Amino acid sequence: MIGLVKRLGIRVRRLRRRIFPAPEWHRKWDDQVWLERYLNPERYRFYRELVAKVPPRNYSLVLDVGCGPASLLRELLEKWPGGQGSCKFMGLEISDAAVRVARRTCGGAHVLRGSVYDIPFREASADLVLCVEVLEHLRRPRHALEEIMRVLREDGQVLITVPDGAQDDWAGHNNFWDEKSLRRFLSPYPVVSLERMPEMGCLVGILSRKGASCSS
Q1: Which of 161, 153, 156, 168 lies closest to 197, judged by CA?
Q2: Among 30, 47, 106, 162, which residue has the least CB neighbours within 10 Å?
Q3: Burial level of 128, CB count in 10 A (0-12/13-18/19+)?
Q4: pLDDT at 82 > cutoff 80
C-alpha cells in the first residue's frame, strides 16, 4: 500500500510539471529583489551548517558545481579568512546572470560559466567538490555525478545535498529522492555519510573515491 501511494505521488508530481512548468528561475539572478528574497537568513544558516560539515584539511582546489551566485563559496572563504594557502576556490554555473552576480560579490573565488555535464577541469584535479541543491534540477543526474567523480582526486570528497523527496513536491524539480532512493543512486561510489537535515528539508551525502563504510 505504501509503495502504491509513493508511485501515485511520483505520477502526480510529473503531471504537475507538465501542467505547471517551472519558471525560468535561472534568469532571475539579475533581479535584486528576488535575489535578496532567495538569499534569506534561513538559506545562509543552511550554508553555514554545510560549511561546518566540510572536513578540515589542506585543499588545493575547491570546486562548487552549480554554484549560483557563489554564496556557499563566500561562506567557505569566511570560514578560512586567511585562505588555504595556494588553494583555489572555483565555481561553475550555467546561468550567465548568476555568473555575473558571483563575480561581482565573491571576489575570492573564480567563477566560470559551464555545464556540470562537461566540467572544464582535468581528471582527479579537485580535493573537494560541492554540489548543493543541483541534482534535483537535472535531466541527467547520473551523467552529472559521473562527471563530478571524474574530476575528484583519489583522496578527495564530494558534498551533495538534494531536497528530501519525502517532503519535496515542487513542480520545478525533475528528480525526487528520499533517503533510501538517494543511497541507491549514490551507491556506485563509496558513501562516507548520508543524513537528513529535517529542519532544512534536505538530504546531505558525502562521497569519496576510496572505500568507506556508510554512516547514517
Answers
A1: 161
A2: 30
A3: buried
A4: no
